[in-house]
Every structure is written in structure tokens, then in C-alpha cells.
Automatic annotation (TrEMBL):
Keywords: Hydrolase
Designated name of the protein: YgeY family selenium metabolism-linked hydrolase
SUPFAM superfamilies according to UniProt: Zn-dependent exopeptidases (SSF53187)
Gene3D superfamilies from the UniProt entry: Zn peptidases (3.40.630.10)
UniProt GO MF annotations: hydrolase activity
């Protein structure tokens, strides 16, 4: 049976990331990202994921940023 999560604990932890998330959002929207011209935003997201310590980060052939952490089931 799944462990029940404490919403207040999760909310409190999430609020601690508010400033970082705002800075990341501002960085993303500072780059033009019209269709087929998302390269700068993709690079911004990839760099942030690498900074956060993702085990592996790559961009697929369609421009999607994919990151992996750990070795658990997909």
C-alpha cells in the first residue's frame, strides 16, 4: 500500500523553491521561442537540469529535453 503523503509538508517544501522557480521561469521566457526556434529555451532548460544534478540530460531529435535521475522503473 502506498504511503500517505502529508500535503502541508509537501506545500512547505515547495514554497522553499519559490525564488528559484521564479528565476528559472524568468530565464526561460527571456528567450524567444516561436515554433521551430526554441533552441535557446531548450539550452536553458538543459543547463538547469544539469545544474540540479540530473544523472543524464539530453535533447532528442524533436528538441525535447529529457532527464534521468536514479535507476528506478520507468
Amino acid at each position: 500500500m502506498a504511503k500517505e503523503l502529508d500535503f502541508e509538508q509537501i506545500k512547505s517544501a515547495a514554497e522553499g523553491y519559490g525564488k528559484d522557480m521564479t528565476a528559472f521561469l524568468r530565464a526561460m521566457i527571456s528567450h524567444p521561442s516561436e515554433s521551430c526556434e526554441e533552441g535557446e529555451v531548450v539550452a536553458c532548460i538543459k543547463a538547469e537540469m544539469e545544474k540540479l544534478g540530473f544523472d543524464k540530460v539530453e535533447v532528442d531529435g524533436l528538441g525535447n529535453v529529457i532527464g534521468w535521475m536514479g535507476e528506478g522503473d520507468k
